[in-house]
Amino acid sequence: xxxxxxxxxxxxxxxxxxxxxxxxxxxxxxxxxxxxxxxxxxxxxxxxxxxxxxxxxxxxxxxxxxxxxxxxxxxxxxxxxxxxxxxxxxxxxxxxxxxxxxxxxxxxxxxxxxxxxxxxxxxxxxxxxxxxxxxxxxxxxxxxxxxxxxxxxxxxxxxxxxxxxxxxxxxxxxxxxxxxxxxxxxxxxxxxxxxxxxxxxxxxxxxxxxxxxxxxxxxxxxxxxxxxxxxxxxxxxxxxxxxxxxxxxxxxxxxxxxxxxxxxxxxxxxxxxxxxxxxxxxxxxxxxxxxxxxxxxxxxxxxxxxxxxxxxxxxxxxxxxxxxxxxxxxxxxxxxxxxxxxxxxxxxxxxxxxxxxxxxxxxxxxxxxxxxx
Length: 373
Prior knowledge:
Number of domains: 2
Oligomer: single chain
Number of helices: 6
Largest sheet: 7 strands, mixed
Helix content: 25-40%
Radius of gyration: 58 Å
Strand content: 5-15%
Strand order of the largest sheet: 5-10-9-7-8-6-11
Structural class: alpha+beta
């Protein structure tokens, strides 16, 4: 009996040990699986999910969110530097392209200029107006009378241009007259004389003065395609036009003309358009009764205090009123004085001439007989 029971117990023990061994093996395998799964979950940032009532689980990855990158080796900085280097390189290439393009255009323009220059060197420029000798309307253009077109026959070593010779290429008393005067009525009209008539200041003394003109001075004759300006409002000498006015009284004569008259020994009478008419008439009568070689014209640049004036070559007499003896003394002293004071020929400029001059009574047609009565 005892031996039989012992054998039974031993058999049971062996069976139980075998079962435990198998169980341990299964448990060990599961544990390793669990460990492996845990490692996988940890390394992959996932979760192990077991459904309710089941020992079978599955792995669910976590929400990754924005990916992060630790640049332990400064790789991003290297990439950024490389990127900037490419940008700089591209900018340099663009700048270089612009320079090359500009140089290319410069070369092309230079070639065009050279071609035109070569063409101009082989081309004789002609101005058709230079060959025109007919009439102009309303007057010849200034380009038709350029200085280099003045014929040699008009050139003069002393005055630049000879005097008294009418020529369309310089001065014919008809070409470009508006360069000296624009025909404005302001120069000879007193607007609203009732309110703008210049009051007579009879207590003001006259002003007589003369300029110190060098003996060797020779006034230049300027053609009609050049402006002539003066540095004083009352010039008594200076450059002027080659053709001088005919003697007499005018609606208006520009200063560029009557300065030539002074050079020929004439007396020029100026009056402001708003001067007292009685004084203007009185001065006119004295001058015309004294001397044939005279020019009378209104002149707005006279002062309000002394709106009357007589001029000789280099000298002037400005007056607020008219003193007969003073006027005659000036005429006698200044008439016929000038570089060409005794030149008797009348002028050819007659634009605006109202009354031609005549020899005064008692002069016997001789200019030296000044103020004969």
